[in-house]
Write a structure and sequence with these properties.
Layout (H helix, E strand, L loop, with lengths): L6 E7 L3 H12 L4 E5 L13 E3 L3 H10 L4 H8 E7 L9 E6 L1 H13 L4 E5 L2 E7 L2 E7 L4 E9 L8 E4 L2 E3 L12 H7 L4 E8 L2 E3 L9 E3 L14 H4 L6 E5 L2 H8 L15 E2 L6 H7 L7 E6 L6 E5 L7 H9 L9 E3 L2 E8 L16 E3 L9 H20 L12 H12 L23 H12 L4 H21 L3 E2 L3 H9 L9 E2 H5 L21 H12 L1 H18 L17 H10 L4 H5 L6 H13 L1
Parallel strand pairs: 1-2, 1-9, 2-6, 9-21, 12-16
Antiparallel strand pairs: 3-5, 4-5, 7-8, 8-9, 10-11, 10-20, 12-20, 13-18, 13-19, 14-15, 15-17, 17-18, 22-23
Helix pairs in contact: 1-10, 2-10, 2-12, 3-4, 7-9, 12-13, 13-16
Length: 623
């Protein structure tokens, strides 16, 4: 092969959810891109629960789609059950979740990758990052072949020096028994990159033919299927859905676990890595929540053409013989056959505070990092980072300003800001409570928030953008209209209000005011609105939400305005904070280490006090 074969604009290391989005973004932006993967069969693999979305994570998927990413479209092709979570609460925390056919999800994503212009895929293990004069220029694989590029994205997932633990048995492997990456960690360390050791895990998979469905509670998908991708409508993806099942652990299960804790690598001291707080193993649950006599378990199919079922809520690293006993102690699983045993996995990851908000290493120009290697957990968190890194690697090649999302732009902005400013000492999981402006950052309006940005970047087509502008105009016009429509008192009007247990009216009232009553809605009042235009369901949903929550939304918009003022007060990257009198020693150390780009970022660094910020404000005003 000629040397030219190995020259690219962007190289992406790893074909997980971060790597797929990064490679697609870069290639779609016209950059010659190489995707280097440990195993072609592991592309977009789901080594843990084969689902996309869920609480807060559904927001991320919608945002990835709104910016022009692939995850939403891919799960719409491959889901086997779809449910909207938290529907008894307000729209800010509604979260779409879809159970995937894990094999269809992977093959569909691989098909997209293999048919994307400007993108080449190669199975090989990257062993070294090539850097000269603090700038990356490529990578080397274990065959001693060099791939040169102007930018490189590391999306290595949980493969770096990974090992899987099931009781006393330790296997030097990546997730699902795949080969671990043996050399890349050492290369990163040699470049002065600070590494951490994290741990996550996975439950056993059981044979669906050996479970008793009659003893468990069926969990059905929603009748109305809401797509993840804003490009789809319900009719595009409507299909029959699989059934999941709910069951519980019991005191016998807990006794088996407590009696075998000395054999658990988590409690015997074998595991070194920091475990995720918000997705604990079943043995951890038994200890941390000792007052609970049972824990929920969801038994979920892994695909349409397999009998494997995933036991969500029962992640474990217990020995195999203990796993058999504890799973078979659960109602409905008494005769279950384990097809794959659960395991814990330890792996190396970086301290993400070494990255800029656009996910490039501060000390190595052109080198980006995305996904679980940054200390996050979850497919959705990885995809969001991958998309941002892919966009920025392409922009870097062009010498353009980087693309960033702040905390008021989306959950993806919150995620990245938390990782690079606050850091994490355990696998980071996205949660709605992390977003200060969650009333504005709903999943239903992700397109309204981010499609314009995706179009400006170049990932949203003209056709999709035109449809978006039409939808936006329809929403704005209809909101303006319902604020002017007056409902007059009449027998028909009051009969309808009584039907919904709403107070009758004796004088004219604006339709928007009626919509704000909690027992009413845009849809329920349609018979009183003769001038209503024919609108899509998504437009009507936005009209309802924006009218209903207008006061709260306006209040949060004012908060965002104050936030933006702090974000717009830029701090020089070359500022030596030790020269600023009045800063505490801890503040000087952290500010010099992290080099925040703005006063807003500085305010979110752990250990920076209001007094330190006041000193910085005075310094900036004096300049």
């Amino acid at each position: 092969m000629t040397e030219e074969k190995f020259k690219y604009d962007v190289i992406v290391i790893g074909g997980g959810h971060a790597g797929c989005e990064a490679a697609l973004a870069s290639a779609r932006l016209g950059k010659k891109t190489a995707l280097l993967v440990m195993n072609l069969d592991s592309i977009a693999m789901m080594p843990c629960n084969p689902n996309i979305g869920g609480t807060s994570k559904g927001h991320l998927v919608k945002e990835v789609d709104a910016l022009g990413g692939e995850m939403g479209r891919n799960i719409d092709k491959s889901f086997i059950q779809s449910r909207m979570l938290n529907t008894t609460k307000g729209p800010a925390v509604h979260s779409l979740r879809a159970q995937a056919d894990k094999y269809k999800y992977s093959s569909a994503m691989r098909e997209v990758l293999e048919n994307t212009d400007n993108l080449e895929i190669c199975q090989c293990e990257v062993s070294e990052i090539l850097v000269e004069n603090e700038s990356v220029y490529g990578v080397k694989n274990i065959y001693d072949m060099e791939y040169h590029a102007k930018s490189v994205i590391i999306a290595a997932g949980t493969y770096l020096n990974s090992r899987c633990l099931t009781g006393e048995i330790i296997t030097e492997s990546g997730p699902g028994g795949l080969k671990s990456s043996e050399f890349l960690s050492e290369s990163l360390k040699s470049l002065g990159i600070k590494m951490q050791r994290f741990k996550t895990g996975s439950p056993a998979r059981i044979d669906g033919r050996t479970i008793d469905r009659e003893k468990m509670t069926p969990q059905y998908g929603d009748e109305r299927i809401i797509p993840f991708s804003f490009e789809n409508i319900e009719e595009d993806i409507n299909r029959s859905q699989a059934v999941c099942y709910l069951t519980y652990t019991n005191e016998k299960t807990h006794e088996i676990i407590r009696g075998s804790l000395d054999r658990s690598p988590m409690y015997s001291g074998i595991i070194e890595g920091a475990a995720t707080r918000y997705c604990p193993s079943i043995e951890d649950k038994i200890i941390r929540f000792a007052d609970k006599d049972r824990h929920q378990l969801f038994v979920e199919p892994e695909g349409d053409n397999t009998n494997e079922m995933y036991v969500s809520g029962m992640s474990t690293s217990m020995p195999a013989d203990v796993q058999v006993r504890m799973y078979q102690s659960v109602e409905g699983l008494e005769s279950c056959c384990i097809m794959r045993f659960g395991y814990a996995i330890e792996y190396d990851c970086i301290d993400a505070m070494q990255l800029t908000p656009y996910l490039m290493f501060k000390k190595i120009s052109g080198l980006f990092s995305a996904g679980q290697i940054n200390g996050s957990s979850g497919y959705e968190e990885a995809a969001a980072q991958g998309l941002v890194a892919g966009i920025n690697a392409a922009l870097f090649v062009e010498g353009k300003e980087p693309f960033t999302l702040d905390r008021s732009d989306g959950y993806a902005g919150v995620l990245i800001d938390d990782l690079v400013i606050k850091g994490t000492s355990e696998p980071y999981r996205m949660m709605t409570s992390r977003a200060e402006y969650r009333l504005l950052l709903r999943q239903d309006n992700a397109d309204l928030r981010l499609t314009q940005k995706g179009y400006e970047i170049g990932l949203i087509s003209e056709h999709r953008y035109s449809k978006f502008l039409q939808k936006k105009e329809q929403i704005e016009k209809e909101i303006a209209r319902v604020k002017k429509v007056i409902v007059t008192p009449s027998n028909n009007a009051n009969a309808l209000l009584s039907e919904f247990k709403s107070t009758n009216i004796s004088t004219g009232i604006f339709l928007a005011e009626l919509m704000r009553r909690p027992e009413l809605s845009y849809e329920k009042l349609k018979s009183l609105d003769s001038g209503r235009p024919l609108l899509g369901r998504d437009v009507m949903e936005q009209v309802d939400i924006q009218i209903n929550y207008e006061g709260y939304i306006n209040r949060q918009l004012l908060e965002v305005e104050q936030f933006k003022k702090m974000e717009n007060k830029k701090l020089p990257n070359d500022l030596d904070y030790s020269t600023i009198q009045g800063l505490r020693i801890e503040a000087v150390q952290k500010l010099n280490a992290l080099k925040p780009g703005s006063l807003g970022q500085a305010s979110r660094i752990t250990g920076i006090s209001p007094a330190d910020l006041a000193v910085l404000v005075v310094r900036m005003q004096s300049k």
